[in-house]
Every structure is written in structure tokens, then in C-alpha cells.
Design brief:
By secondary structure, this protein is of the alpha+beta class. The chain folds into 3 domains: about 60 residues, Winged helix-like DNA-binding domain superfamily/Winged helix DNA-binding domain (Arc Repressor Mutant, subunit A, Orthogonal Bundle), CATH 1.10.10.10; about 210 residues, BirA Bifunctional Protein, domain 2 (2-Layer Sandwich), CATH 3.30.930.10; about 50 residues, SH3 type barrels. It is built from 9 helices and 14 strands. The strands form 3 sheets. It has a 7-stranded mixed sheet with strand order 3-4-5-9-8-7-6, with helices on both faces. Strand 10 and strand 11 form a beta hairpin. It is elongated, with a radius of gyration of 22 Å.
């Protein structure tokens, strides 16, 4: 969407009544014919725009696309989403956000792509990123906290995204899988990837990236056993703009609470109530070793508490968690 088309959409979104073609001509310095062409482009993109002779244009229907013009009117944030970059295609929203962060972008700068050519999850796994159906987003944070606390951020994000999805999608039953996934029906719904640049005693910035499978239906055959979407789980298509706005609103609130706290203690009741691994036997794979045990909860620092056969408790700060029993693949609704 070029800047003039975007300006016309922004004007229509923020106007309850008709906007005359003459007003748009004067504001944008273009002809009536040019206005008509831009309106035609918006209609081709899926926007429902009424045109009445003598009155002008009125927006009668949105597309649900995660563009600034549709997302920002739904925000109640101070910084998250206020600086908004939308890309039709990106290699990775995290890479783009990191570039902006290095250039000095403000906290809360949000990068969204309609599709990604190099989307990544943890362990550099590829993240399926087709256009027009899902949500791919990265947010720049500049937390004034000791670097040792930064690994808590993925769980802050997970709690906020969980709250947003369940609020926006009635009937959704989702769980948080430590350390950075959301599942529904045992299949991945959302992945979170946090990356930072720091010195031993100072964090320059953190980029929080997340991908939510929104209207992907069907899931490709090769992923059908491990991935799902909001549309599949609820039986209804969702507005990506509304989902993104809900996430930004809740994430900023939870992030602000976290900055005022000394650890994740304030979030533990939420994280444990919706924990996918709670009470289950798991195997934790780390780079050079693995361990097994029963998950008993989380520490205030977000470490997974693992009870061994001898009754000892180990606090695990990182790793990939796998369920040990096939009977644990589904959690009752």
C-alpha cells in the first residue's frame, strides 16, 4: 500500500461519517480522479467503501489485515504499536526490528509482516509464514533491568498473548508450554522468539518476536500433527488486526507490571494455571545433556522446576521439553 492510499485509508478509518472527495484532494494535493483510483485500490484489497454523489466516501467494512490503520485505533497503549512498520514481505520481522533497534528506534516499535521468507523459531527452526492468514510480529523493548532478568521476558509475552487470544476467541482452550510456545489440542498455536543485544551489566535492547497461526486452514500435511490455528480450534475466522491490538494492549500492561517487580512472582499463578507441562513427566534436552523428571512448577525467575526420581528439585533455566508418556499428549478440556 503506497503512502497516499494509506493516508486515504487512515482518514476513512478515523471518520464515522462521509469524507468528501474535495477534502481528500485538498489534504493530499491530488485530483479527484487520483482519489478515485486510490479508493479502487482499497476496494481491491477488500475494504468496503461506499461512494455517494455529493457526500463523498465512507468506510463500511475493514479487512482485518494487521496494518497500522486497522490496529492503532484499537490500542490503549502508551508505546507498544505507536511506531508501526508494516511490510508486505520480510525475511524476518525480528531481523528488521533488530536493525531498527540498532538505529535507535523507540521502545514499543512494532514490526509486522504479511509474510516472511525466513521466519525462525527457537533453535533456528523454520517458521511457516504464508501471506494473508497469520500474524508475524516483533516488538523492540529497552528494559532498564539487569541483563540476568531478560530471560523472564518470553514468559511475560506468553502470558499476555494467552490472555489476548482467549479474550478475542471465545471457546479457545490454550496452554502455555515452557519456555515460549502456546498450544491448543496439543498442537502449536504460537511461538515466541526473544533476541537481545547486551553487555554484562547493560541491555541495549530486546526484540520480542511472535508468530500466531490465525486463519491458517488447512494446516499443510507435513505439519498437521504438530500445528493448529485459531480458525481451526474455534471454527471461525479471526481479524488479525484485532488479535494484534489485543496482544499489544495486554503485553504492554504485563511488561509494565514486570518492570515494577523483582521477578515473575506476580505472574506465577497465571503461568502455572495454564501450564501445559504442569504435573507431567518430561525429558529436557539441552545442548550437552538431557534430564528427566516431573514438572512441579516454575521458579520466580521462570525456571522449570523438575522433580527427579530421588525427590530432588532441579531448576532448569533453558532447554527443549518433551513429554515422556504418549498418554500426556492431550490435556482434557
Amino acid at each position: 500500500m503506497n503512502p497516499v492510499t494509506s493516508s486515504i485509508l487512515h482518514r476513512l478509518v478515523n471518520q464515522d461519517s462521509f469524507v468528501s472527495g474535495g477534502e481528500l484532494c485538498r489534504e493530499l494535493g491530488i485530483t479527484r480522479s487520483a482519489v478515485w483510483k486510490h479508493v479502487a485500490h482499497l476496494r481491491e484489497a477488500g475494504y468496503v467503501i461506499e461512494a455517494v454523489s455529493g457526500r463523498g466516501y465512507r468506510l463500511a467494512g475493514l479487512t482485518g489485515a494487521p496494518v497500522a490503520e486497522e490496529v492503532q485505533p484499537l490500542l490503549d497503549t502508551q508505546s507498544f504499536g505507536r511506531s508501526f512498520v508494516y511490510l508486505e514481505t520480510a525475511d524476518s520481522t525480528n531481523l528488521h526490528a533488530r536493525s531498527l533497534a540498532r538505529a535507535g528506534s523507540a521502545e514499543g516499535t512494532t514490526v509486522v509482516a504479511d509474510s516472511q521468507t525466513g521466519g525462525r523459531g527457537r533453535m533456528r527452526r523454520a517458521w511457516l509464514s504464508p501471506p494473508g492468514v497469520n500474524l508475524y510480529c516483533s516488538i523492540v523493548l529497552r528494559p532498564p533491568v539487569p541483563t540476568v532478568r531478560v530471560p523472564e521476558i518470553p514468559l511475560v509475552a506468553a502470558a499476555a498473548i494467552h490472555e489476548a487470544l482467549e479474550a478475542e476467541c471465545p471457546g479457545l482452550r490454550a496452554f502455555i508450554k515452557w519456555p515460549n510456545d502456546l498450544l491448543s489440542g496439543g498442537r502449536k498455536l504460537c511461538g515466541i522468539l526473544c533476541e537481545m543485544e547486551s553487555e554484562p551489566d547493560f541491555t541495549h535492547f530486546v526484540v520480542v518476536g511472535f508468530g500466531v497461526n490465525v486463519n491458517l486452514d488447512p494446516v499443510p500435511d507435513e505439519l498437521r500433527d504438530i500445528a493448529t490455528s485459531l480458525c481451526i480450534e474455534t471454527g471461525a475466522a479471526c481479524s488479525r488486526a484485532r488479535i494484534l491490538a489485543a496482544v499489544l494492549n495486554r503485553f504492554e500492561r504485563r511488561y509494565t507490571e514486570w518492570l515494577k517487580s523483582s521477578d515473575l512472582g506476580f505472574l506465577l499463578p497465571v503461568l502455572e494455571r495454564h501450564a501445559w507441562l504442569q504435573g507431567r513427566q518430561v525429558r529436557i534436552e539441552q545442548f550437552e545433556r538431557s534430564m528427566t523428571g516431573t514438572v512441579t512448577g516454575l521458579s520466580p525467575q521462570g525456571h522449570l522446576l523438575l522433580k527427579g526420581e530421588d525427590g530432588s528439585i532441579t531448576a532448569v533455566n533453558s532447554g527443549e521439553a518433551h513429554l515422556q508418556s504418549i498418554n500426556d499428549q492431550k490435556r482434557p478440556a
